[in-house]
Amino acid sequence: MEKIVNLFTSIGSRAGRAICFDLDGTLIDPYLGISRSIAFALERIGFAGVDGMTFEAFIGPPIQDAFQRLLGPDVALATTAVRYFRERYGEIGLFEAEPYPEISAVLAELSVEASLFICTSKPKIYADRIASAFAIDRYLPAYMEASSMERARRNRNS
Question: pTM for the complete prediction?
Fold first, then answer.
């Protein structure tokens, strides 16, 4: 942690510096809540073989894309799976995440040196609830949604 803070301290003043953090896999370990919510959704749509599955591939990409890859070209089926996923995830799954050890201390120190932001493909309501539940929202007051990041990337590449 000290090396990270020293790196930003040596760069210069806080003004104009920003650091973006993804939630899943960067600030929190979301596997338990996401995997249980995926299993719930797959069971609800009658998908066979859920018991032996692992769901690491679902961590990171937008959930609609992950279900689409798993379930094939039936967009309606994937959309239904997403609905069931969100039913469980929004009430239970997002609170089954675990913040990484010492992440609050790291964010506290970095927030002195730079403006910190959450950048995630999660719906804002989930990102806000997760940040609040794990008391990291005080360090990450702003949020950038995936659609905004995608628009910025497209504009940059144009």
Answer: 0.79
Distance CA(5)–CA(106), nearest Å, equals 8
Q: State the Cα–Cα distance between residues 26 and 102, nearest whole angstrom.
A: 12
The pLDDT of residue 13 is 54
Q: At the fourth CATH level, which superfamily is domain 31-95?
A: Putative phosphatase; domain 2 (1.10.150.240)
What pLDDT score was predicted for residue 10?
44
**Four-CA torsion 81, 53, 126, 110, nearest 10 degrees:** -150
Topology of the domain covering 2-29+102-157:
Rossmann fold (3.40.50)
- Taking phi over 0 as left and psi of -120 to 50 as alpha, with beta for the rest, 145 belongs to beta
Say whether 22 is catalytic.
yes
* Annotated catalytic residue within 22, 29, 65, 128: 22
117 alpha-carbon distance from chain centroid: 12
Residues in the chain: 158
